[in-house]
Structures are given as structure tokens and as C-alpha cells.
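An instance follows:
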Amino acid sequence: MRRIKVELLGALEEIAGIDQIEIDSEGPMTVRDLIRELIERIGSRELERAIFAHGSRDPRSYALILVNGVEVGSMDLLDSELEDGSKVTLISLWHGG
């Protein structure tokens, strides 16, 4: 079993109502799978809209994605498998001005 720690920052934390969650997976899980599982667990349509641009299934539109402190969105690593103990941080690109 793999246990992945997820940290939400910025508007994502506010929308989800939590700043951290752990997600367990019996089998392989990619970054993209983890984000889908996170949205399903939180059960928030608003969170889904805050991560995915309208009509897109690409979370890089509205979120900076780090795995163990390394930004993976710009390196096109959303389909890379996460290891047990990985920490995924999602930072909202939405902010006030």
C-alpha cells in the first residue's frame, strides 16, 4: 500500500476546508490519479473548478504542483507514479489583488 500526503495551499485550502490529507492507494497512483482521488474524497465541485480550467482535464491551468518539493507540472510529469511517502503540494494560482 502507498500512502501519499497532500498539502493544499492558498485558495485550494480555503475551498477544501482542510490544509492536509493523506490518501492511500493499493496500487500504482500517478499525480493525475491523486488529484482526481482528492477531488472525489473532498466531494467539492468548487475544488474541481479551482484546479481544472473549464473544459480541461489538465490541473496545471490553475495549480502549481510539487512532488517532494519539486515542481512537476512544467516538466510534464503528471503521469509519473508516486512512491509511498511522497508529499504532493498543490498551490492555487488564484489570488487576490
About this structure: The mean pLDDT is 89. The chain has one domain: 2-92. The longest strand covers residues 2-9. Residues 31-42 form the longest helix (12 residues).
